[in-house]
Amino acid sequence: MPIKIPDSLPARATLEGENIFVMTEYRAIHQDVRPLSLLILNLMPTKIVTETQLLRKLSNSPLQVEVELLQTSSHTSHNTDASHLRSFYTTIDSIWDRNFDGMIITGAPVENLDFHDVDYWPELCRIMDWTRTHVHSTLHICWGAQAGLYFHYGIPKYSLPQKLFGVFPHRAVKPRSPLFRGFDDIFYVPHSRYTANRVEDILNRPELELLAVSEEAGVFAVKSEDNRRFFITGHPEYDPDTLANEYFRDVNRGLDIAVPANYFPDDDPTKAPVVRWRSAAQLFYTNWLNYYVYQTTPYDLTTLGS
Prior knowledge:
The protein is α/β, with parallel strands linked by helices. It has helices spanning 10-17, 25-29, 47-57, 82-88, 121-134, 143-153, 199-203, 242-252, 278-294; strands spanning 3-4, 22-23, 36-41, 65-70, 89-90, 100-105, 135-141, 158-172, 187-196, 208-214, 218-224, 229-232. It has a single domain (3-240, 275-303), classed as Class I glutamine amidotransferase (GATase) domain (Rossmann fold), CATH 3.40.50.880. The protein is built from nine helices and twelve strands.
């Protein structure tokens, strides 16, 4: 996919090293097409890692996509260099009058907090409200999905007895949904969270459609009936070593953490993880971008919300 990002963004060198087509700004402006405009609200502390993971998954399509990065202004990131944020990130006030074809709202490691106790919750609510009239299709991930379901539909999250941690099998409840076009009957997705949404809460809202579930991980994919909002509770974009890094980090901190399920061969952390979610992850992001952004977004974005 000719994905257009700033030439000096750290993700560019990583993606080009993986033989992923990254378009320069010079080449983009000489193509007579309107690129899709995609905004990523990155709430993760390790922002460069998350940028690269998402851009990798948005990279397998003939569509030209121009990506911009958004951060909250009411929270100070302590895990990403300030110069990186100044160079590549914007805030909602700077783009308030603009419109976007698509948007991704990432997860955040705050699921044990009540939504209203998160320091940037008022700003996040303001951003999610803004998406109603300024974004054609918004994809919410993990805690971002729980936050979106609560904000838009009043659906609560529930604490789990222990951390849901590993790679779990899933099935599509509606296999004919374009979002799961081309998927196997069983597909795998990484999860890493302490809270969950409940199936009955989703089914009780006629504005929502339950699309995919897991016997072990519960609700996975939900969308609004008008296809404007999508919610996934896992992390299909994760790298092969993401769960391993998280596991060893917690072990080194002396935390009581279980080995991630269905991840290390024989549950042996000394062995390299087995990746069984990569193809489904790629297909998921490609399907969302194609069927729910490109195929349906208005050519004139100023008509959004009208």
